[in-house]
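Researcher: Predict the fold of Limonene-1,2-epoxide hydrolase.
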Amino acid sequence: MTDTKEASEKLVRDFLGSWQDRCLETICSAFADDAVYHNVPVTPIKGIAGIRAIFQAFLDAFSDAKLDILALATEPGLVLVERVDYFTMYDGRTVELPVTGVFEVKNGKITRFSDYFDLADFERQSGMKL
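Model: Structure tokens for Limonene-1,2-epoxide hydrolase follow.
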């Protein structure tokens, strides 16, 4: 498979959009088995099992999630996304978090996903500790 600019962009847009449907299988289907997910202020998570676990924890904490793309740049196998993530917690609190994500794509799957954001801002708004 060729990871064209268009294919890489579609994969990432579909992944980001899949959070609104809240289906863990769909969300995780974008990732390679040996992928790395790195919320850059904290330790990277290696492998799909760990990624599934953290994504499930997010789904368990948020009743709604919308990842709003502000800007997107792509090259074959590389997608950069500036976005604002909006979460509604089950207790009614809301989170509005500016984020920049870097996605590496190989063979039609995300192999590395790094998110850059203000950790203290996220933890203050969400009440979660990453």
